[in-house]
Design a protein that fits this description.
heterodimer, B: 307 residues, MetI-like fold
Chain lengths: 322, 307
């Protein structure tokens, strides 16, 4: 197992390298660069000064030197300056938004797990019951409805017509502190959190149901029941422990889906997170920011997959990797 | 289960054909018979057909132009002339709903088709030949899967000046082949070890012939099922990207950019008839396609039924 983990970590390194090359490569395809968008069409700028500035910024260096400069700065948390937000540093911009996206992601994951796992278990224990059919129907709907459309309906019904939840932002009045601020934040995250978690909830529910059904049908569960073990012991000690294995792996791999979803969901609710920053940067061709966010999201996904793989090998010692 | 070809043959109790007859049927016929029994899937086919016909027949159903703008007539509530009112540029919402369906369906279908072509070719090469080619293709797939799909697509869109339907479909196909490639490769890997493949090689069949005659027919189940589900995904992807303004641009109507009108809080609040119908259209279409996909999966692989 340790051999596997070490090998898995070693694969992580070339993957990370490939990721940085892709992100850098795409940005190089862009027409123009950091300066041309600002200065090239400006008649007041002397072409010689323009050339000097290019030299100073290293834009005339060979491409591998530019790549090395970018990646070595990025490794120290320096992603350069934004082209759009009056040259504010990219790291500063991202720092302000990163926490918001993290809270939203965790909140939506929490809703997903709290809703999906119990319902999945119930569905499996009482298959073809009313709730099971309801859950299955919800599963189909949850996967078929575009999450931005669901978000808009949620705003239309729950926010505009009923006024139960705020439709955008993170805090209604700036300057709130302590518990009040915390509750206000949660209140703002309810709609985006549910919207973001919808597809995940549907997926986990279906997985959980089929996993528990699989395990309940296995011989060792029959043995456990036959020797007189109580229903709850069978469920918690034998069934769940085995049925949760694939769910945990799924969570690691779902990070990418969650982050992709966040881009659109945050836009619907005008939630100031990485997603909205990413979109506005794409729109403004603010490449230092686009590259930095793409890189961070890619790294998060790589780490998610790594953790999922490692957890998998720890939880289920039967799994062999050759 | 009663088809004309069977009528001369003996049938078992309850009109179920007895086992022997299965031998006279191709796997396709068997799958088709199983599919027919799935009511939800069959109904879904009719629903999807109805949607396609309505979109094709758009000029017969409305006399309004989906593209013509009318600045004197914006954000209007429904009238006899404009059944679903007009949008922020005075375009007729009902006409846009019908014509937009064409674009959304075409984009979904052609993105699926091109992904399928890339996926089948790369998956076949990787799974059949193995070795170096295989590892190059699979590492390529790993790399493509590293970035979240949407982030990758948006980063590419950021460097492109103008998005047309063709470019949009190309971007989707070029970024989403890895999943299908993996599935096809995995199917081939298990087929490669089978004896009939060895037999075919022994009698001198070419690689191309083995892939065409033995591999693809055996992998056709997963290929069709995934293609169906992919089309549903791409309709959602198109609408999502159009919603955030990075899909098919105005004035071309699509369901996604119709919903994006609702980013304007006035339209969201006052004109629900402008953005709810395209949303429901996407929902019904995707639901129907997913049911068909599930029906196909059960039909091609009866063991998957418990899922």
């Amino acid at each position: 197992m340790y051999k596997y983990i070490i090998r898995r970590i070693l694969i992580f390194i070339p993957m990370l390298f490939a990721l940085t090359v892709i992100v850098f490569g795409i940005s190089q395809l862009a027409p123009g660069d950091a300066l041309s968008s600002k200065m090239l069409n400006d008649p007041n700028v002397d072409p010689e000064v323009f050339e000097e500035r290019r030299q100073a910024l290293g834009l005339n260096d060979p491409i591998y030197v530019q790549y090395w400069n970018w990646i070595s700065d990025a490794a120290q948390g320096d992603f350069g300056n934004s082209l759009f937000f009056n040259g504010r540093s990219v790291a500063e911009l991202i720092e302000a938004r990163f926490a918001n996206t993290l809270y939203l992601g965790l909140f939506s994951l929490a809703i997903t797990v709290i809703v999906a796992i119990p319902i999945g278990i119930y569905s499996a224990r009482k298959p073809y019951s009313l709730l099971d059919y309801g859950a299955t129907g919800f599963g189909f709907l949850g996967l078929a409805i575009p999450n931005f459309f669901f978000g808009l309906i949620a705003i239309y019904v729950l926010s505009i017509n009923l006024g139960w939840f705020p439709s955008q932002g993170t805090l209604s009045t700036p300057g709130l502190t302590g518990f009040e601020a915390f509750m206000n934040r949660i209140h703002h995250m309810v709609l985006p959190g549910i919207t973001l978690g919808l597809a995940g909830t549907a997926t986990y529910m279906r997985y959980m149901r089929s996993e528990v059904l699989d395990v309940l049908g296995s011989d060792y569960i029959r043995t456990a029941k036959a020797k007189g073990m109580s229903e709850s012991n069978v469920l918690y000690k034998h069934t769940l422990r085995n049925a949760l294995i694939p769910i945990i792996t799924l969570m690691g791999f779902e990070i990418g889906v969650l982050l992709s979803g966040a881009v659109i969901t945050e836009q619907v609710f005008q939630y100031p997170g990485l997603g909205t920053l990413f979109l506005s940067s794409v729109m403004n061709r603010d490449f230092p920011v686009v590259m930095a966010i793409a890189l961070i999201l890619g790294i998060l996904i790589l780490i998610g997959n790594l953790i999922a793989d490692i957890l998998y090998s720890i939880i289920d010692p039967r799994i062999r990797y050759d | 289960m009663q088809t004309n070809t069977e009528s001369t043959l003996p049938t078992g109790p309850e009109n179920e054909p007895i086992d022997q007859q299965h031998q006279h049927k191709t796997p396709f016929q068997l799958a088709f018979n199983r599919f027919k029994k799935n009511k939800l899937a069959v109904i879904s086919i009719f629903v999807l057909l109805a949607i396609v016909i309505i979109c094709i027949a758009a000029p017969l159903l409305t006399s309004q132009d989906p593209i013509k703008t009318d600045v004197t007539n914006i954000e209007k509530r429904p009238t006899d002339e404009h059944i679903l009112g007009t949008n922020g540029q005075g375009q007729d919402n009902f006409a846009r709903l019908l014509y937009g369906g064409r674009i959304s369906l075409i984009v979904g279908f052609s993105a699926m088709f091109f992904t399928l072509v890339i996926g089948v070719v790369l998956g076949s090469v990787a799974g059949y030949y193995g070795g170096k080619v295989d590892s190059i293709i699979m590492r390529g797939a790993d790399i493509m899967l590293m970035l979240p799909f949407l982030v990758l697509v948006l980063t590419i869109i950021a460097v492109i000046d103008k998005i047309t339907i063709g470019i949009f479909v190309t971007i989707i196909a070029l970024t989403s082949w890895p999943n299908l490639t993996r599935i096809i490769r995995a199917t081939y890997l298990s087929l490669r070890e089978q004896e009939f493949v060895l037999g075919a090689k022994a009698i001198g069949a070419s690689d191309m012939r083995i892939i065409r005659k033995h591999f693809i027919p055996n992998a056709i189940g997963p290929i069709i099922v995934n293609a169906t589900l992919m089309m549903a995904t791409y309709i959602i992807v198109e609408s999502g990207l159009s919603f955030i303004g990075f899909g098919i641009p105005q004035p071309t109507p699509t369901w996604g950019n119709m919903i994006s009108e609702a980013q304007n809080i006035r339209i969201l609040r006052n004109n629900p008839e402008a953005w709810i119908p395209p949303g429901l259209a996407i929902l019904v279409t995707v639901l129907a396609i997913n049911f068909i996909g599930d029906g196909l999966r059960d039909a091609f692989d009866p063991k998957s039924k418990q899922r």
